[in-house]
Amino acid sequence: MLLRGTFVHSPQLGELEILHDHLVGVDENGFIRHIAAANTRQSEQFMAKNAQDAIINIPKGSFVLPTFCDLHIHAPQFLYQGTGLNLPLMKWLDTYALKAETRLDEDPKLAERVYTRLATRLKENGTGTVQLFGTIKEETNLILANCMQGAGLRAFVGKLSMDIDITSPNSLTKTYVEKSSSDSLAAARAFVQHCHEIGANLPESQRLVEPVLTPRFVPTCTDELLAGLAEISETGRIKIQSHLAEAKDQVEWVRAERGIEDIEVFEKANLLTSRTVQAHCTFLNGQEFDRLFTKGTSIAHCPLSNAYFSAKPFPLREALDKGIKVGLGTDVAGGYSLDIMNSMRQAVAVSRMREGERNMKPETAGTDGRNLSIDWKEALFLATRGGSLALGLQGMFAVGFPFDAQESECHVCDPLSDELKIMCKFKLLVHIYDPMTGVGVGCLDYFDLEGDGNSGVSRPHAEFAINSEAIEKWWCIGDVRNRGTMWVQGKKV
Description:
Elements: E1 2-9, E2 17-26, E3 32-37, H1 41-49, E4 55-57, E5 62-63, E6 65-66, E7 68-74, H2 89-106, H3 108-124, E8 127-133, H4 138-151, E9 154-161, H5 181-197, E10 209-215, H6 223-236, E11 239-244, H7 248-258, H8 262-268, E12 276-280, H9 286-295, E13 298-301, H10 303-309, H11 316-321, E14 326-328, H12 340-360, H13 362-365, H14 376-390, E15 405-406, H15 418-424, E16 430-431, E17 433-434, E18 439-440, H16 468-477, E19 486-488, E20 491-492
Parallel strand pairs: 1-4, 7-8, 8-9, 9-10, 10-11, 11-12, 12-13, 13-14
Antiparallel strand pairs: 1-2, 2-3, 5-16, 6-15, 15-19, 17-18, 19-20
Helix pairs in contact: 2-3, 3-4, 4-5, 5-6, 12-14
């Protein structure tokens, strides 16, 4: 597959690279084998060698972007997305989350409906890579894994491991826990094996689903269970995900039950590794960030759910300054939006509020004068390359990397010109401007390029340029009308 046009990515934190008129060649296994300016001798030679492949020309006013990476979603909680956000974390889990997980474990047909729709919504929102918390029942998590593989999404699926019951005595929810640490570990091993078998008959590059060991969080796991999961991870090089220092009531629960901080519990169990992603981490301090950096542990930053369930915002700038790998998570249903674009915007907004507080009360901020805010370019890095690096992936365009890119879909075609409608049949790109009609796509308006309001004809000398300003406008107010389906590992999904 050959594509020629504009490609946009963020190779480093705060860096936006716009590759104008570039040629990208993708092989049959979905890996990028060529990327260079289209008018170079190198690109001409590559086109000559691959003359059998038609060149897909990306129309002006459109660009290709790496897919978004969502580091933290509770898949069964998608059942009640957008409701039940009125309680503190531990009561919310008992009232809503465990009830939903129980329902899906007891109803495989409902689970398949929910997870199939979840995959559809992820694709609509430009998310090509996702890390998922599931339920405690193996069969339900295999349904989740199969739904993601069938949808063509790159998914890291976690079967919950829980041997401590946190259901309150007066709860309407049934007890939601595994019988013992040994039973939980046996179930984790079985899930890892059976998840690996999904897609085993496919070429290795198209096996998109991986298992993730998932101790829910310290309050639901004995030391024996945590240590056993660490052993499974070390032996099989299996990724790990959990929650760390998330909310005031959760942190206090751990202190009361264990007598230490939950980061110490994870560290003693050898679960802080370079294969580990910990969600939230809002209550960690600088020394604890140092420990995560030393271990190579990554963080899933979930700004929206933090606003609902944490008593304080995540110290994002401090974590980035320490060199920790950080990506974004929507944390559905603790967060109500599946759209990583909202997570990007919220991450910036929260950071600017923290910076405002530092300026107003520098004596209480404890930041040594550093600017705590991040900008939209840094947020775009977190949503693409940052989250990908946390999972051992790439999230950018370079030779040897998988071609995971966002495209648009035909449902955005109505307001577009005939030329872009034809291009949409090939399911391409992120559209922000239609040069044939001289207007922006969706809610994007470019008044300096439009007609005078009478003739409806665009200005004769005005030419749209995909630059930092145009991309920032899309970042701030763009929506699903500017994007749609995607390539994952070179295949359209």
